[in-house]
Specification:
The protein has 205 residues and is of the alpha/beta class. It has helices at residues 3-14, 19-31, 56-67, 78-87, 102-108, 126-143, 174-180, and strands at residues 36-40, 70-75, 95-99, 115-118, 152-156, 160-161, 164-165, 184-188, 194-198.
């Protein structure tokens, strides 16, 4: 299957929050021929919601079916994992479903990480946002030694405006830490929601 045919199925549903960043991330994933995809915070809602929630696990499963790869998706909520299993049943041979705290999961994950998608924890209000941002920083630190020069990172619910990361972002602490460690912000969404980071300067053809 050609990439454009694959992504066209989702593009309109993702608009306007995640269509551009997911398009870039999947193009990078295809271009680098990566295999190991790790997601924290699964497709947990009872319904499929590409517009509001992204529906990342379903799209990743479809991607792996057409272009190769395997997904590890982790969520601390068993009901969320069961919802994800139901939504992604056509791709369950390509997905390892994990019920666990993401920090524990990332600590014990045995392989390299080619594509890291961080979207666990959440909630509205300062305390919830602060907890989510601190949690994501700890997630990255536990995944850091499993990443490599060609890895791709996507952080969800993260808005960067004119180079400044906004306070409500899940990536408020993790993204500056990544940049300090040599990761580059490759692409950000315009209306909240995601940032894509790579280790080195890179240009899609």
């Amino acid at each position: 299957m050609q990439f454009d045919k694959f992504f066209t199925k989702y593009q309109a549903q993702l608009f306007p929050y995640r269509h551009a960043t997911f398009g870039v991330a999947f193009r990078l994933l295809l271009d680098r021929k990566h295999e190991f995809i790790v997601e924290t915070g699964t497709m947990r809602k009872p319904e499929i919601d590409h517009h509001g929630d992204g529906g990342s696990t379903l799209m990743m499963g479809d991607f792996c079916r057409n272009f190769g790869g395997h997904i590890w998706t982790c969520d601390i909520d068993p009901e969320g994992i069961e919802n994800c299993r139901r939504h992604t049943k056509d791709y369950d041979d390509l997905i390892t479903y994990v019920v666990d705290d993401s920090l524990s999961f990332l600590e014990s994950y045995p392989n390299q990480i080619d594509f890291l998608y961080l979207d666990s924890l959440g909630g509205a209000g300062y305390e919830a946002e602060e907890a989510a941002a601190l949690h994501q920083l700890e997630e990255f630190k536990r995944a850091e030694d499993k990443l490599h020069e060609n890895s791709i990172i996507v952080v969800d619910d993260t808005l960067i405006v004119e180079g400044q990361i906004q306070r409500e972002a899940k990536g408020f602490y993790s993204v500056p830490y990544m940049v300090e460690k040599g990761w580059n912000i490759f692409h950000t969404g315009k209306k909240m929601h995601q940032a894509v980071l790579v280790r080195q300067d890179y240009r899609l053809v």
